[in-house]
Amino acid sequence: MILLTRKAEFSASHYYWNDTWTPQANQRVFGKCANRNGHGHNYTVEVTVAGEVDPATGFVVDLKQLKDVMEREVVAIYDHRHLNLEVPEFKTAVPTTENIAVAIWQRLQGKIPGAHLHRVRVYELPDLFADFYGEV
Ligand SMILES: [Zn+2]
Questions:
Q1: Which residues are within 8 A (CB) of 71 and not within 5 positions of it... i.e. 6 or more apart?
Q2: Which of 16, 19, 93, 132 lies in disulfide reach of 101, CB 3.0 to 4.6 Å?
Q3: In whole numbers, what is the pLDDT of the chain averaged over residues?
Q4: Annotated catalytic residue, options 9, 52, 124, 135
Q5: What is the pTM of this model?
Q6: Does the annotation count 80 as an active-site position?
Q7: Count of CB atoms situated within 10 Å of the CB of 79
């Protein structure tokens, strides 16, 4: 078994807010991130697939297909969007780095032909990232 990782980037806005809490509680927990006008990040997502190397091609997965799936399922939907307002999964879930990693996993699962999705890593900042391996 070998692991192969492809990166993609997208830029998006978000804010942190829990509708079931008071505004004061949101301010206390989320601080500046609770500003409802939002703020932006340049996100990097790494998608790692696991599989066996095909002896004929030397590939674990068709790289063009992997790129296309990431582009279609993630970048086209998240890039230059306000995550809270424009991406369905964040109408209810707070768009933290953790929740973005889970959402990207759910978007990609079962859509990468010939390989097993192993890890989704999302960087919100160069020194802050979340990993999701599919366990809930
Ligand atoms: Zn932020």
A1: 8
A2: 132
A3: 96
A4: 124
A5: 0.95
A6: yes
A7: 14
